[in-house]
Amino acid sequence: MKSVLIIGLGRLGHHLCVNMSRLGNEVMIVDEDEESMQDLLPYAVMAKVGDCTKEDVLKSLGVGNFDICFVCIGSNFQSSLEITSLLKEMGAKYVVSKANRDIQAKFLLRNGADEVIYPDRDVAERLAVKHSANHVFDYIELTEGYSIFEIPPMKSWIGKSIRQIAIRSTYHVSVLGIKVDGHLNLLPQSDRILEAGDHLMVVGLKKDIDRILANI
Q1: pTM of the full predicted structure?
Q2: Which of 55, 95, 94, 89 is nearest to 73 (CA)?
Q3: Which residue has the higher pLDDT, 106 or 140?
Q4: Measured by CB atoms within 10 angstroms of the end CB, which terminus of the chain is less buried, N or C?
Q5: Neighbours of 153 (CB within 10 A)
Q6: Backbone phi, then psi, for 75, in 5-degree steps?
Q7: What pLDDT does 123 receive?
């Protein structure tokens, strides 16, 4: 369990609060708009109305006691920048800040952000990859080169085991799991026979996965 501070309760802050709470974390929420936090009160251990660009407001939160501080302000970049800087000055352990553009990310990192996220861009990229290819059920980018794809097996793989296909040595990707009817089997045995309805969760370089997709 981690203690989490979420500043800014727009769409990102709202979903973070709900999901962090459901995963068993203790969440404190802060926003200038009291109405924005009403439906989140069941998920937060504490809620405060205040302007976090003001030092006295941040000091009152005890930011150094939280494992993670999320700055989820998207509409006012200057406020996001000021809050990020103040959090680090006050001893915040780990600060995650939201950016909409690369130039914003550079300034946030220079001002103390430990991590910068681009929620709108990341969702757009994921949807673009998923819906541009006929055989991609889902997609997650891990780093600039490596990704996880949910794909069907190649026709030549059906009826053969993972060992027989030699997926790792031949195609340079690894099978993390196999999803059947929505149920995921993580790290399947090498003697698992692949079937037509399987969804394979494969990880590897995008260029290697693209080579597989070209043959599906």
Answers
A1: 0.68
A2: 95
A3: 106
A4: N
A5: 24
A6: -85, -20
A7: 77
